Amino acid sequence: MNTQDNITSTKFGRAAKLVGTGAKIGGNYLKYYAKKSITGNDNKDELHASNAEDIYDSLSNLKGSALKVAQMLSMDKNILPRAYTDKFALSQYSAPPMSAPLVIKAFKNATGKYPEEIFDSFDAKCLAAASIGQVHLARKDNKTYAVKIQYPGIADSIQSDLRLVKPVANAMFGLSEKEMKKYFEEVEEKLIEETNYDLELTRGQEITKACAHINGIFFPKYYPELSYSKVLVMDYLEGVHLKEYLLTNPTQESKNKVAQVIWDFYEFQIHTLKSIHADPHPGNFLFTADDRLGVIDFGCIKVVPEDFYLNYFPLLLPEVQENKEVIDKLMRSIEIVFPADSLEVKNELTSAFLKMTDLLSRPFRTEYFHFTQSFLDEIYQTGEEIYRIEEVKKPTQPRGSKHALYVNRTYFGIYSMMADLDATIHTEAGTWRFDLLAKHNIQSESETILA
């Protein structure tokens, strides 16, 4: 794999890199149209492959929030042609790493010491590289550690990167910068948190302690005494990522078992901790031969506010979906509809939102649920249909609470992994269902039957 001797960190340099990528894409289109005029072949597979290669090369060299965009898009499999999502999936755990000299320099700048002054041995060759940092193996006192080193200048580039992205996003959603402000603030806050390794260490310790009781899951231990603000040291965990795990041809029983661990892990976080590991892409999970799941990287954590939780998650329950009065209240609370909306707009948005939540809530309505690619396709197809609604495609004001951004991203990531595993697992809503119904003074279906 090619390595990088430097990472562009200045606003001008990063902007120039993106402009240069745009020029390459323009050249790819010229080649496509020239070839089409000669052969008459309008197949765009080659064009998509060339564009995906050029875009990924640019983003992966910039690292940081630029590469994070590719990482997020790789999870949304129906938004882009497959050539893009397949290429962007590399950003989950296999981006081009820093060269050995740059690694040593970054480590020395962050700690004031060379790696060999802290560890008995340190492998300058990267174990895994992602958007914010890369991981190296080190040994000390016969123990193996994973050492995550943050890319130089990444924390300082986030705001300028997002400024470059804003005009594109505003044009995509038909909203002004002022209207998009709350969403960009949420994204910026999370990206900045991901560069705060002190915060990641604290959250990693808290969540792993709280989730230690979940069967089949294991976490790295963190070492504050060896860590710094841009260098994080933890246990090295054995295991393979999802793609490699599936290549071992595990039995469906094994896949179901590990999928259940993932599901139980997130159910506990969402409904008990109200704090979520909000980066559920395959690069953050390790699968073992004995059907256990290792969870790494607690940089992106979404703390779910209580009022949002109480007004958002009831929408997954059939008793709520059938109660118009409660639905009207919840739709206003989560900022899907507003008092100034016409009755036609309110009805159209409510109907569309309920159609999607009815689909997303299917797993919670049965004791066991089979996650398939066709179920995932149905979700994305429904999303495309909703996007064609005028008030969704070109809204008069931003629709939806900012807190839904990372909650929705988390669920789509979970469902995607479940579909890749073709899993059939226990998904029926737990006791949280009754708690939420009681909060809204709704009697559950089971209570009605018993009465």
At a glance:
The chain is α+β, with helices and mostly antiparallel strands and 451 residues long.
How does this model look, in words?
The protein is an alpha+beta fold. 34% of the residues are buried. It starts with 10 loop residues before the first helix and ends with a helix. The protein is built from 20 helices and twelve strands. The longest helix is centred in the N-terminal third of the chain and has 29 residues, at 11-39. Strands 1, 2, 3, 4 and 6 form a five-stranded antiparallel beta sheet that branches. The protein has a three-stranded mixed beta sheet with strand order 5-9-8, with helices on one face. It is globular and about 70 Å long. A hairpin with a 5-residue loop joins β8 (285-287) and β9. Among the domains are: 11-91, no CATH class; 304-450, no CATH class.
